[in-house]
Amino acid sequence: MASVHHHKLLYSLFVSLLAAGSVTALPGLADTGQAAKVTTQTDKYRVPTSQPGFKKVAKKYKQAIPIQILGINDLHGGLETTGSVTIGTKTYNDVGTVARLSGSLDQAQNQFKKSQHAKAANTFRVEAGDMVGASPANSTLLAHESTMHALRAMNFQIGTLGNHEFDHGLGEFNRILKGHKPAANADSLIKNYPHQASKINLVVANVVKKSNHKIPYGYKPYTIKTIKAHGKTAKVGFIGIETTDLPHLTLLKNYQNYQVLDEAKTIAKYDKILNKKGVKAVVVMAHTGIASQDGKTDGNAVSILNKVNQLDKQNHVGLYVAGHSHQYANATVGKTHVVQAVYTGKAYDDTQGYINPKTGKFMHLESHVYPVLPAKANPKAKSNAKVVAIVKDADKRVAPKVNAVIGKAATPEPITGRNNNSKTMENAAGELVVDAQRYEAQKAGAAPDFAMTNNGGVRADLAVTKQGDITWGAAAAVQPFGNILQVVEMTGQQIKDALNQQYDENQAFYLQISGLRYTYTDNHDAKQPYKVVDIKKDDGTPVSMTATYRVVINDFLHGGGDNFYAFKNTPIKASIGVDTDVFVQYFKDMAAANTPIKAPTLDRKIYQPAGSAMSTHTQPVEQVALG
What we know:
Low-confidence stretches: 1-32, 614-627
Oligomer: single chain
């Protein structure tokens, strides 16, 4: 859910992220219960072949056993997703696609083999959850089997669960993981797609059935791999971890049969079990968020590792591949390296190091995150032909459904989005999105008062054909992520706080709103130049600061995304489904009611200059368009 989650990249485009890179030794933990030291550095190189620390073997490691971990997280079926990504202090453009990811991973693996003169299979490709879900049509419409085919072609060996693997029930994800046939009532596109096992070894240690407290579908909590060099061997353990936030990130029916155990306690438990099996080098893939920015690293992953270290300061976790928050991260927490490679295949992490053949422990690790550069910027990374063919085939298969008509517009012209904001930072596509969310929530019996979404969640204009038709593909382009829509309870004051948080970063992040109107005015504060002074429902009823209201938001906002902290941890009263599906259903409902879609009038935010008794829509600030 990205996730969530998906618009964190926009924040990285607005501010410079100072993120981590190389660490030449594994620092020990202090013998106290205090939090471990967190070290954040800066990545400077765009390809591993340029990385100084990866070019040659230091003399002290000549007889050690080399190892490489190549990781991704939150692919979200992004077979052809492109965009910009900020890593360290540099922003890279036109990055992404699984074809380019395949070439980048091969380039990194070949660099490792060449520098180590390694013939042994000591490279492992791993992922940290949300392989699928919140995906474009060429994954979604094929039940994400095209994505699983691509992961297989890229030789991903070990993975764990994210929240989006539960989007259609864990049983359905297990089906595509194992390559089983779909249900008899599945769409013909899915039935006709080739079904094959992904060959990913799915490990998850902290998801158990409530009925018997066993891990579902025969998944294992960990796997052990043996690596070789110089006639010697060592064992490496890989533990998979799901986020305990899962109940907030998917529908009740998808998680109600499962319990997600405490991440830190689970890691500590299985680290000890692996230790007893002679495994002294442990890698964790965990769908828990982290971010490196402004020279600091923070997030759930840091808290989890601090707790692991308090439970067992002698643990052997050397690497923690994080996910879920869609941020760039590269740091050490105590002795553990932590990395996260943004999301949707725009970046990957490359950790290289050595294991002492006598002790079986990591002697040295060095982690970096690299962008997935386009061919023009990195011609030496050759795309895998099998991956290219998989994507081309998927595009061809979904084209008819993408072009299916689901609604009718009042006029044959696009309903424009955030590239055509009013001076009060409203746009027609955005307000149509929240109107649709409020309508569908009402239809579902969730009794919403308002609906709000972040500007980054509205990704495109709503395209309309010359005949006035709205297609499935057009709707999905506006709401492509598959975020879960939640109805939360907020006080009037919290709503006011959320609206004010639009104005504290030059409106880099702003909201589209439904069900209410408000007036804002000058605040005479450089840090927040405007403030909200009056909020009313559509019918003119004032919004009370002490009363409670139900607001439809996506799960990204519920986590405080785009710095809208007023939404964070508000009580969830209902979940109405995936935003893409809700938006599509709205057009179908309007078509069934013979109601053509019209662009909303942009009059929900009213700017009133300080000292003026007359409201006006004039807004004397420049717009900031991100992403």
